[in-house]
Write a structure and sequence with these properties.
The complex is a heterotrimer of chains A (about 270), B (about 425) and C (about 300). Chain B has about 425 residues and is mostly helical. Helix content of chain B is about 65%, strand content about 5%. Chain B has 3 domains: about 50 residues; about 130 residues, no CATH class; about 220 residues, MetI-like fold. The radius of gyration of chain B is 31 Å and the shape is extended. Classes of the chains: A alpha/beta (about 270), B mainly alpha (about 425), C mainly alpha (about 300).
């Protein structure tokens, strides 16, 4: 059984700027996460608005990556990880019984900290998702999907004449863009990014940030970052995590210029971190 | 946008098929593992079932008159024949008598001989003793002969059945624990055959193997791990060791034959030569295991020793080696266990002849337990099949014991740094 | 602070001890040289009497026909092709059994099984490799071969009591751990990032294994198969006890065949003069065996090492 896509809601949401900021694509309600006996996340309540970039910031070990992985149920693969509470996608709990994880992960894509292209050709890397889900019926359709995805991430001109070369032969920044192309090839609704630039040099980082800015027109993006400057540059909404708790969330400018909580203030002014 | 909608439907449509494939794939994995485990069980059970009977041997009790005349001629079997005639007085014809004598093992006389030699006063007296029955009678007592088969198809005649039944009714024939299996050497008669000769041969061979391979292996490992510079020579040595570890065992046998027997002229069939060949085979394993043991000792130990002024050799011998020794011994025990089961190289150097005497030292001709198993497996008699399987059980018991000791040793001395 | 005579003596002693250590580590090289020298030397003596081409390509193997000592080399044919084919046939059957079972068991243990199951099953599988081959030979000759013969008779198929199938099946059982252990290691060695990347896109576990992990681990798996093949080709006791003695050039697993190792044993156990062409032929066979297994092992290690470099 899978979640039905409420395309009506998302259509109309995209049509007006006001409703864009009002509708939550995803949300968390009273989420607690345990690794065995140890509690990693405590009572998280968060709103993720549609077609915007939401940054999750906080010192290392505060649980932001853990939370990110809850959003596409990647924590399911970890033995001993227990999740309480609800995580909603378009208003429906993704941890409810009968939710199909495979379909869910086609709707919520993920890009990892260290680029991890498969040891396959560039073409096959991008084609992997559509292939297993049976999205492309013919070779021509697949070609189009691959071309389109590589174009969107700005990689097409660099790899056009070496599509059969292994994905690992690209530079770090190119590999990460390949991984993003791979993720968007299945047309997800949400893209999760776990510190996507931390393994890249400043130039590659800048290009990816540009890309993220373009992508948010069509995709909801949730990004974990340990760079406050990056959060300030790229995101519209920010959530500050500290020691497993969600301390504060709101517009990015508000979080950085007039934070409500003193812990937030301490973090953004560099006193803790 | 409509992409997303059709995508979703396409994904939906494929899910059932994909989950079915998932279940099937997992099933293949479980099935393969189960099949492999069941192979293990089948092999062990098949052997156990066939061999467990050999731990009992049919014995016949007789009251035997130790005739001084026959004793002078050493005709102990004659005395037994006399006692059988007494037990069954109505057997008159020669053919019948031959059949009657056939109930008892042809070597039953040795037991009588040993008894009288230990106590000379028994000459001229009547003694009662249990003696081994022939292997055919043994099979009958173990239920291996079908009485309903027509007489011409079986090895036991109806008349013999009558005699056996009478002995059973009088309590003069029964299955007893087969100590002879553990104390006697090889024999042409299955009821007299034992593994002591082979076991001793294996023991001497393993002793030689250990005494040669362990010191050499440890010394080589110490040099390679602690002293040698990383250059092409050491690479070559390493490659050599890894290759030798994978050379078929029969090739080592050829080496032993060509070099130890023909070139150096060492005695054929001796456990000494067997041990030398097995030592060459086991050496790579010991070197590899010892190197791992040395590597697991943290560098801080070495640095601390060097810092107080110990030379490199002193550091290794006084500080590193004692810590690595349990791991090295574990590797050596496992290597010895493997050497115990080796047959092919021993065949090549001649430890395959029929040898009755239990070897007394390292240069006596000897055989080894796995070779004994190989030789007995060739014999057509059912009684030998039983004994072959029993010898395998003993061999496996030794192997399990050695591996258990190795594991206990490893656990006991396991250090967490 | 200066080197005293006492210290000098100690240094000399230590140098000597280290010298002994060096010699010990050369034993491996001496052994290899010894093997090559002895096998090569005797083989060359053989090839002086029987042309090497006759040996390698000849189809007729009947070494026993030279009965009188003055007939050495002149009669009795030494064409080894039936032996090579017999060895390959039995090894092929063994791999046919061991590869699917070993590989799927490895996949299950590496990716699906709980840690507890893995902790029990893995050592038990290793036990299969620890059983002495003479035990397997007994099992093959006295349990499997009669069973096959009886089953075949039930289907109207004549299976020889020394069939290649019996020997091959049991040999397959023996080499399962070679495939399963190594494959388990190489599959586990594929970085977790690959699995997460695939699962994150919505692939099922079996799709991840089939389309990402196995292709990535393929070189290592190929290496394990080559090592298992090398083990099968060099195996002696199972074939000596379960396969036949007379050369028979066939690919039919139900028929009886002989193998290289069987002939080596047959030619050298028994009372012959060491110089006759028969016993020298055993060394020529030994040379062929050594060279083949050496090549397989070198290729296998090469493949596995290149694969490891990929991920480090």
């Amino acid at each position: 059984m899978a979640l039905t896509i409420s395309t009506e809601v998302s259509h109309s949401a995209r049509q007006s700027d006001y409703s864009k900021s009002l509708s939550s694509k995803a949300a968390a309600r009273k989420v607690n996460v345990y690794y065995g006996d140890k509690q990693a996340l405590k009572d998280i309540n968060i709103e993720i608005p549609e077609c915007q970039v939401t940054a999750l910031i906080g010192p290392s070990g505060c649980g932001k990556s853990t939370f990110l992985r809850c959003l596409n149920r990647m924590n399911d693969v970890i033995d001993g990880c227990r999740i309480e509470g609800e995580i909603l996608l378009d208003g429906e709990d993704i941890y409810a019984r009968g939710v199909d994880v495979v379909h869910l992960r086609a709707r919520i894509g993920m890009v990892f900290q260290k680029p991890n292209p498969f040891p396959k050709s560039i073409y096959d890397n991008v084609a992997y998702g559509p292939k297993i889900h049976g999205i492309a019926k013919t070779r021509a359709e697949m070609d189009e999907i691959v071309f389109h995805s590589l174009e969107k991430v700005g990689l097409i001109d660099e790899v056009r004449d070496r599509m059969e070369a292994p994905g690992t032969s690209l530079s770090g920044g190119q590999q990460q863009r390949l991984c993003i192309a791979r993720a968007i090839a299945v047309e997800p609704e949400v893209i999760l990014m776990d510190e996507p630039c931390s393994a890249l040099d400043p130039i590659a980082t800048a290009r990816i940030e540009e890309l993220i800015d373009e992508l948010k027109q069509n995709y909801t993006i949730v990004m974990v970052t340990h760079s406050m400057q990056q959060a300030a540059r790229v995101s519209q909404k920010t959530a500050f995590f500290h020691m497993g708790e969600l301390v504060e969330q709101g517009d990015t400018t508000d979080i950085f210029t007039k934070p409500q909580d003193e812990r937030t203030l301490a973090y953004v002014t560099g006193r803790i971190g | 946008m409509s992409d997303r909608k059709t995508n979703s439907e396409l994904i939906e449509a494929g899910l059932a098929r994909r989950y079915r494939a998932e279940r099937r794939f997992k099933m293949y994995g479980i099935a393969a593992t189960a099949v492999a485990m069941s192979f293990l069980v089948i092999v062990l059970v098949a052997i156990f079932v066939r061999g467990v009977g050999a731990f009992n041997q049919t014995q016949i009790a007789q009251v035997v008159f130790v005739d001084p005349e026959l004793a002078k001629e050493n005709d102990w079997q004659g005395m037994i024949k006399a006692s059988l005639r007494e037990t069954f007085p109505d057997v008159e014809d020669r053919k019948g008598k031959r059949l009657l004598y056939g109930l008892m093992s042809s070597g039953a006389g040795y037991d009588l001989q040993n008894m009288v030699q230990n106590d000379a006063s028994l000459v001229g007296q009547k003694v009662q003793l249990w003696m081994p029955a022939s292997d055919d009678v043994d099979m009958v007592m173990k239920g291996g002969v079908d009485r309903n088969q027509p007489e011409s198809d079986r090895r036991i005649s109806d008349q013999e059945f009558v005699w056996i039944d009478k002995l059973a009714a009088d309590g003069m024939i029964e299955l007893q624990f087969n100590t002879r299996f553990f104390t006697a050497g090889d024999s042409r008669e299955p009821e007299l055959a034992g593994i002591m000769g082979a076991a001793k041969g294996s023991f001497y061979t393993l002793v030689v193997c250990f005494l040669l391979s362990f010191p050499l292996g440890v010394m080589a490992a110490i040099y390679l791990e602690e002293f040698s510079p990383k250059n092409r020579w050491t690479d070559l040595i390493e490659v050599n060791i890894n290759n030798l570890a994978a050379v078929p065992s029969i090739v080592f046998g050829l080496l032993g034959l060509a070099m130890f027997l023909n070139f150096f002229g060492l005695p054929r069939s001796a456990s000494l030569v067997g041990g030398m060949v097995l030592a060459l085979m086991t050496l790579p394993t010991i070197i590899i295991a010892s190197r791992l043991a040395l590597r697991s000792v943290p560098p801080s130990i070495r640095e601390a020793a060097l810092a107080v002024g110990a030379s490199r050799l002193q550091t290794v011998l006084d500080h590193v080696l004692p810590l690595a020794l349990p791991g090295m011994l574990t590797g050596a025990i496992i290597g010895m266990a493997r050497a115990l089961g080796e047959t092919a190289p021993l065949l090549m150097i001649g430890m395959v002849a029929f040898i009755v005497d239990v070897p007394g030292n390292f240069t006596d001709p000897a055989t080894a337990l796995p070779v004994q198993i190989y030789l007995w497996a060739d014999s057509p008699e059912r009684a030998f099949t039983e004994r072959t399987a029993a010898a395998i059980i003993v061999l496996l018991a030794f192997l399990i014991a050695m591996n258990v000791v190795a594991v206990i040793l490893r656990k006991k001395f396991e250090q967490r740094w | 602070m200066y080197v005293t005579p006492h210290r000098r003596a100690k240094i000399a002693l230590e140098k000597m001890i280290i010298g002994i250590l060096i010699v010990s580590s050369m034993v491996a090289i001496f052994t290899t040289i010894g093997i090559v020298a002895s096998v090569l030397f005797e083989s060359l003596r053989f090839f002086a009497e029987v042309p090497i081409l006759d040996f390698v390509f000849g189809l007729e193997w009947s070494p026993q026909t030279a009965l009188r000592s003055d007939q050495v080399g002149s009669s009795g044919s030494f064409g080894a092709v039936p032996l090579f084919v017999g060895t390959l046939l039995i090894s092929a059957i063994a791999l046919f059994v061991a590869v699917p079972i070993g590989l799927f068991a490895a996949i299950y243990l590496a990716e699906y099984a709980h840690a507890q199951i893995r902790n029990w099953v893995k050592p038990l599988l290793e036990m299969l490799a620890g059983i002495p081959t003479v035990v397997y030979g007994f099992f093959a000759a006295l349990v499997v071969a009669p069973w096959l013969r009886g089953t075949g008779a039930g289907f109207g198929v004549d299976i020889s009591s020394e069939s290649a199938l019996a020997a091959g099946l049991v040999m397959g059982i023996m080499i399962i751990p070679f495939i399963s252990s190594l494959s388990d290691d190489v599959i586990t060695a594929v970085p977790q990032a690959m699995r997460e990347g695939s699962l994150g896109l919505g692939a099922t576990k079996s799709e991840t294994i089939r389309k990402v992990l196995l292709p990535a681990a393929l070189p290592g798996i190929m290496g394990s198969i080559l090592l298992a093949a090398s083990r099968a080709i060099g195996e002696t006791m199972i074939v000596v006890m379960a396969a036949g003695l007379s050369a028979n050039l066939t690919l039919n697993p139900f028929e009886t065949v002989t193998a290289v190792t069987v002939q080596i044993v047959a030619l050298l156990t028994g009372d012959q003069e060491f110089d006759s062409a028969k016993t020298l032929a055993a060394f020529a066979l030994g040379l062929a065996l050594f060279v083949t297994t050496l090549c397989l092992n070198i290729i296998a290690h090469h493949i596995v090492r290149k694969y490891r470099e990929q991920y480090e």
